[in-house]
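Sequence of RDD family protein (Ramlibacter algicola).
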Amino acid sequence: MHEEWEYVGFWARTVAAIIDLILQVIICAPLTMAVYGTWTSPDGRYFQGPFDVVINAVLPAVAVIAFWLWKGATPGKLAMSARVVDADTGHPMTTGQAVLRYVSYIVSALPLFVGFFWAGLDRRKQAWHDKIAGTVVIRPAGNERVRFPSEPAFKQTEPRF
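Predicted 3D structure, token representation.
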């Protein structure tokens, strides 16, 4: 890599996630309303029916994974000049890594979202889903140069999960 990179921290990632969530609501709520007449379940069920699952679970998953593979980032991360790459090489993540990273959001979320907050504590600013998928979130910048294990002079001082 010829450009200097830095790891993207918790707050920038949070802003990116909020942007992505707003876009998801703007797209999915009208579709859900068109099918069911409301965008929330009136009787407290998580999903109103099969089209709700497709619109609000499958469609966002496909969109996120497609953006990761196409642009290396979701619109929110693009707004932060960030991208998700392989943690060892800095190359674009593979399809397998993208799917694993998305599914691993569940692991990051289940214990009170601790896996997401972990990005604020980790040396490489990896959330649990990044550690599981072998990815890091980077952006062009300045203070701390990113070094990938495949580069000479890389010293790993932290155990990998």
